[in-house]
Amino acid sequence: MLTVNMLLSVFFLPGVFADYCQNKPVGISITAPKEIEALSGSCLEIPCSFKTLRQFDSRRHTNGVWMKNDTDFSSDPSVVIFHSSRSVNKYPLNITGNLRERNCTTLFPDLNTSYTDKYFFRVENGPFRTTACADPLQIKVKDSPWSPSINVPSDLKEHQSVTVTCSAFTPCPHSPPQLTWTLQQDSLRQTEKNTERTFTTKIQENITLSDTHDGYNITCSARYPVIGGSKTAETEVTLSVSYAPRNTSASISPSGLVSAGSWVELSCSSRAKPPPRFTWFRNSKDGAINVSVEKVYGLNATEGGEFYCVATNDLGTETSSEVPLEINGDQNLLFDILF
Ligand SMILES: *[C@@H]1O[C@H](CO)[C@@H](O)[C@H](O)[C@H]1NC(C)=O
Ligand SMILES: *[C@@H]1O[C@H](CO)[C@@H](O)[C@H](O)[C@H]1NC(C)=O
Ligand SMILES: *[C@@H]1O[C@H](CO)[C@@H](O)[C@H](O)[C@H]1NC(C)=O
Ligand SMILES: *[C@@H]1O[C@H](CO)[C@@H](O)[C@H](O)[C@H]1NC(C)=O
Ligand SMILES: *[C@@H]1O[C@H](CO)[C@@H](O)[C@H](O)[C@H]1NC(C)=O
Ligand SMILES: *[C@@H]1O[C@H](CO)[C@@H](O)[C@H](O)[C@H]1NC(C)=O
Ligand SMILES: *[C@@H]1O[C@H](CO)[C@@H](O)[C@H](O)[C@H]1NC(C)=O
Ligand SMILES: *[C@@H]1O[C@H](CO)[C@@H](O)[C@H](O)[C@H]1NC(C)=O
Ligand SMILES: *[C@@H]1O[C@H](CO)[C@@H](O)[C@H](O)[C@H]1NC(C)=O
């Protein structure tokens, strides 16, 4: 009866155990990243756990095996690069997880590019011995480090308080990359676990944006410690911050006294993002009159007056100071200005 149950569990467990390995049904499935990158001269921690058939008995002594490129160790024993029962192994790995608790977390202490390959995990739990043939783990070892990523919310506006983050992939949490950036160095720093249980190192800072941040470059560099030194990669982003009009000023050309009937140009300038719209006003006894919606307002100087412009964008409005238009020989206006 027991045998029947075992056969049933072998053949009727859904999906995960349906594969075969060297003509034997696979009795294990592992949860680990399918593909993982590592840096030569550094370490790699592989988060790993496994599920097995009921024959797995956590009271028994359990060994873990890692194979490289292939699983057929009977025809090629050299595929076995690590066996936890051996004191000397081809690769100096360390299974740091507790295998009896189905934790196969493994540390590769020092990789080089020749480690780039497919790896297979095997568990040996008394007579229950099975290889996770259907779950190869692809390791890719690179010589150059990963550029960190800088995260800034989109659509930045002045007065907003935003969190800027620089994060770097951290395959070796025991010696994480050191992050530095052009923002303050006392930023919040941490190495945290991701959803796939791999690690990320971060620095984070809250900044209150102003117009001076527009065009500001944030450079973040990640320095990875490796055997005998370090490797560094850098990322730069330029902030784009919207702001209300600033330094709005009105000017008149020609300046000073002009003769009646001559052509005069009033010009408005302002710094704003997005670029502002302009409106020109003329002061009169009945209040300000809207005279133009151009940046440069040209007019035939028939009478004197006072003008100012207003710059406007989605974020706000700014009014310039007033500029006088003085007509040569216009005693009344001169009188007004002087007294
Ligand atoms: C890897 O395995 C394949 C077969 O699965 C074999 O053809 C190839 O020679 C192996 N590569 C190395 C480097 O052993
Ligand atoms: C393996 O890792 C464990 C836990 O981190 C540590 O105590 C042990 O010394 C390591 N073994 C080797 C051979 O590095
Ligand atoms: C597996 O073992 C690793 C290393 O000891 C540990 O950090 C991790 O928390 C364990 N995972 C689980 C699910 O217990
Ligand atoms: C890479 O590591 C393996 C195993 O630790 C070692 O045998 C080999 O010499 C190393 N290769 C280089 C280029 O350092
Ligand atoms: C930054 O702002 C976020 C959200 O507003 C807040 O949760 C966090 O504590 C702040 N961090 C620092 C370092 O002030
Ligand atoms: C920011 O970086 C860009 C591109 O590298 C460069 O053209 C620009 O001059 C830099 N701006 C500042 C303020 O340094
Ligand atoms: C622009 O206005 C700011 C205040 O808003 C002032 O500090 C700065 O000197 C002005 N710049 C110029 C070029 O006038
Ligand atoms: C400006 O006004 C004067 C007087 O009315 C006229 O003679 C002259 O042609 C005008 N000039 C322009 C450019 O409109
Ligand atoms: C100024 O006048 C123009 C044209 O008559 C009009 O489109 C605009 O809305 C006015 N602007 C203001 C601020 O009154």
From TrEMBL:
<keyword id="KW-0732">Signal</keyword>
<feature type="domain" description="Ig-like">
    <location>
        <begin position="245"/>
        <end position="328"/>
    </location>
</feature>
<feature type="signal peptide">
    <location>
        <begin position="1"/>
        <end position="18"/>
    </location>
</feature>
<protein>
    <recommendedName>
        <fullName>Ig-like domain-containing protein</fullName>
    </recommendedName>
</protein>
<dbReference type="InterPro" id="IPR007110">
    <property type="entry name" value="Ig-like_dom"/>
</dbReference>
<dbReference type="InterPro" id="IPR003599">
    <property type="entry name" value="Ig_sub"/>
</dbReference>
<dbReference type="InterPro" id="IPR013783">
    <property type="entry name" value="Ig-like_fold"/>
</dbReference>
<dbReference type="InterPro" id="IPR036179">
    <property type="entry name" value="Ig-like_dom_sf"/>
</dbReference>
<feature type="domain" description="Ig-like">
    <location>
        <begin position="148"/>
        <end position="240"/>
    </location>
</feature>
<dbReference type="Pfam" id="PF13927">
    <property type="entry name" value="Ig_3"/>
</dbReference>
